[in-house]
Amino acid sequence: MALPETPARPAPANAEAYCVKCKATRPVSDGQIVTVKNGKSALKGKCPVCGTTMMKFLSNKQAASAPAAPAAPAEGG
Ligand SMILES: [Zn+2]
């Protein structure tokens, strides 16, 4: 069963990812938190220097700390 598509959320202003072209970690431009096929969250954005698309997988904790996160029903608090 396919999961419904999760709309991308804006990434935190301080979000960073690794640029394979620059071979350096940089703050992402146009950063977004997206959900990938396996249900994990990833930070997606552009390198501010060369414009290459950057992607970094996030832990659930990191993804949850992103702003505008949908309130997920927590069980067993
Ligand atoms: Zn770059």
CATH-level-2 architecture = Single Sheet
Query: Uncertain spans, ≥5 residues at pLDDT below 50?
Result: none
Order of helices and strands: EEEEEEH
Largest sheet: 4 strands, antiparallel
| Hetero ligands | zinc ion
Q: What would CATH call the class?
A: Mainly Beta
CATH domain fold name: N-terminal domain of TfIIb
Range of helix content: under 10%
Number of domains: 1
Q: Strand pairing plus helix content: what structural class?
A: mainly beta
Overall shape: it is: elongated
Spatial gap, N to C terminus: 28 Å
Mean pLDDT: 83
Radius of gyration: 13 Å
* Helix segment tally: 1
**Share of residues in strands:** 35-45%
As an assembly, this protein is: single chain
> How many strand units?
6
Strand order of the main beta sheet, please? Answer: 1-4-5-6
Structure description:
This protein has 77 residues and is mostly beta strands. The protein has one domain (10-64): N-terminal domain of TfIIb (Single Sheet). Helices cover 6% and strands 38% of the residues. The protein is built from 1 helix and 6 strands. It has one helix spanning 60-64; strands at residues 9-10, 16-19, 24-27, 29-35, 41-46, 53-58. The protein has a 4-stranded antiparallel beta sheet. Strands 2-3 form a two-stranded antiparallel ribbon. The longest helix has 5 residues, at 60-64. It is elongated. The relative contact order is 0.24. Zinc ion is lined by residues 19, 21-22, 47, 49-50, 52.
